[in-house]
Amino acid sequence: MISVLVVDDHVLLREGVGAVVATQADIRITGEAGSGAEAIAEYDRLRPDVVLMDLQLPDMSGVDAISAIRSANPDARILVLTTYSGDGRAIKALRAGAMGYLLKASLRNELLDAIRSVHHGGKHLDASVATAIAMHVLDDALSDREVSVLSLAAWGNSNKQIAARLDISEETVKGHMKIVFSKLRATDRTHAVTIAAKRGLIDL
Predict the structure, then answer these.
(1) Domain 144-199 belongs to what topology?
(2) DSSP letter string over 135-204?
(3) CATH of segment(s) 2-136
(4) Is the pLDDT of residue 166 over 90?
(5) For position 3, what pLDDT does the model report?
């Protein structure tokens, strides 16, 4: 029997997962959590075989929750279940220790196979996400500073305001933005923000 902990702040989603799993003889839901802190506590209490983890939680990101669980339990098997298809978020989750990345739209079709695969030590990646990762695998990644600059720009800050927030010069901000445009193949700030948000490289 594969025991599963479902982590999502939406009760309807947890109920939906439960309904899909209830039809199976070899999988059962042993616990639920609606926040990252609850997920960490419930993992320690229940020690489930597989964790289904949403990325958007009220108290912390799913990636941070994955990191916390995996740092204390290196053998934890975590499968992301999310609405975000961008390669940026998927890569962050996989680097944090997730063994699979599944979109909620594919829940009924792929969930059971994904749970079994991750339980047996395999990986499971949604096809569209795998394609997105493959498309950008050779791209130069944005540095942490470039992400910070673009995130502030996304919230409407001018170069002068960004410079003040990050304690750097306006010229340095312009330099970072120029590199961001090049890496994302963007024509202007709005285009760069749109691309980065769609790929999950920044949060809006």
Answers:
(1) Arc Repressor Mutant, subunit A (1.10.10)
(2) HHTTSPPPPHHHHHHHHHHHTT--HHHHHHHHT--HHHHHHHHHHHHHHHT-SSHHHHHHHHHHHTSS--
(3) 3.40.50.2300
(4) yes
(5) 97
